[in-house]
Amino acid sequence: MNNExxxxxxxxxDKVWLLISxxxxxxxxxxxxLGKSTGRSFPFVEKVVPSVGTMIERGxxxxxxxxxMFCVAAGFGLGFITAxxxxxxxxxxxxxxxxxxxxxxxxxxxIPALGYAPLLVIIFGVGQKPAIILIWICTFMTMxxxxxxxxxxxxxxxxKAARVLGANDFDIFLKIICPxxxxxxxxxxxxxxxxxxxxxxxxxxxxxQAGIGMRIRSLSxxxxxxxxxxxxxxxxxxxxxxxxxxxxxxxxxxxxxxxxN
Amino acid sequence: MAGEDKLVKLKIDNVYKEYxxxxxxxxxxNGVNLDIRENEFICVVGPSGCGKSTLLNIIAGLLEPTSGxxxxxxxxxxxxxxxxxxxxxxxxLFPWRTVIKxxxxxxxxxxTPKEEARQTALKYIxxxxxxxxxxxxxxxxxxxxxxxxxxxxxxxxNPEVLLLDEPFGALDAQTRVQLQTELLNxxxxxxxxxxxxxHDVDEAIILAQRVIIMSARPGRIKRIxxxxxxxxxxxxxxxxxRFLQLKAEIWNEVYQEFLEVRK
Lengths: 261, 263
What we know:
The structure holds 2 protein chains of 2 kinds.
Chain A (H helix, E strand, L loop, with lengths): L1 H7 L5 H21 L3 H4 L3 H4 L1 H8 L3 H32 L1 H16 L3 H12 L3 H25 L3 H9 L4 H35 L8 H10 L3 H29 L8
Helix pairs in contact in A: 6-7, 6-9, 6-11, 6-12, 7-9, 8-9, 9-11, 10-11, 11-13, 12-13
Chain B lengths: L7 E14 L2 E14 L3 E5 L6 H9 L6 E6 L2 E2 L7 E4 L11 H11 L4 H14 L15 H14 L4 E5 L7 H18 L2 E5 L3 H7 L2 E6 L4 E7 L14 H22 L1
Parallel strand pairs in B: 3-8, 3-9, 6-7, 7-8
Antiparallel strand pairs in B: 1-2, 1-4, 4-5, 9-10
Helix pairs in contact in B: 2-3, 2-4, 3-4, 6-7
């Protein structure tokens, strides 16, 4: 009986779902574009898509993407290579971490980047340098804490099991702690990329010459809603692509992990 | 010191252990003395909190006694050692390693040549009935299968003494009985000295030559019961008259301790 009810249920394929949700979004967008005041902020597709061409013609489009991606990549890269060893050091020297480092990380982490961006401009001048450093700081904060928490939560029984099988400290680090930390490193990368994109706007408020965040600001000043909306959507697409890449890496590296569901 | 008696494999000599807790110190073990003979199968029963796991961890070298010592073949143990293998209740398999890689871990630590390590691992995987699962990850296995891998892993490292900390405690009744039988068969063949902790009195009697009953707070050995039921034992042994007698006797002692703890 149960089987019969199951058979009658209509199964909707994932791709169809995607299409449905896309249509729904377009519908909402369309409705917004009809409104008198919302229409000013949300011109419909036929105005937004051609604005890509306009921006390319102005010589801004590729430069903006290039500049922003460079800042994100450099800031995130620096954040990652510094967060990784620091997280291990924090896990190794617990007291130093608890009393000395963690309070400061939490203190700085909760200040919006936009708040202290001007300080960096005073030190490093305008341009990409302060932007990269700002992204570095924000991604470092998020990732070091996440990886540290992960190392701290490694199942002690696994370390015991390795020890009774003859593993020394070096073996335990290399063969237990490192692989056990991989899932947390991936979570950290995910959060770090999110932080990098959010910080990007603050970072490019530091007098950048090009960049997605800078362009959104300047288009807003000249009331060009269509290209502005295009850039905002572009930001969303870049975010989605990055998440997809992390997903693929995750599946490759942590397929062994037990998943709830 | 120890080792006069050649038969003594493992000597637990006046082991005392206290923990420094927030509410002062707790005595976990209060002077435990025990000689475990070569090839012997020992089971330790007692209510939770009687320090039986602490004792196992001290023998394994994962914990240090506050005073007293443990001797293996007359030599005082220091830290962990591959001659003392451990099977944990929570399986403790490395989730990022396949079954065969898990079983090979101890051999890898010993720098055994790859092919030889593989062959040894395959032999033990087959012995625990998991042939065909060599390349599975722990997440794909049931609890019973995971514990079989853990047992194979401990055996593959070729320890002289096997320490088992409530290894079947997390398994369902049927799987537990099956694994008991398998462990018993292996022991009868290989006669590896076993130190097995359990809270299941049936399990203790069916497996052990001697059952150690521990009392709680502070943990001490209360009584040692010789199990004079001849091997090979099977699940049918559990309805023997002698088995039931011993069960009633041991149960009574353990239950008294349990009531002590509840006070």
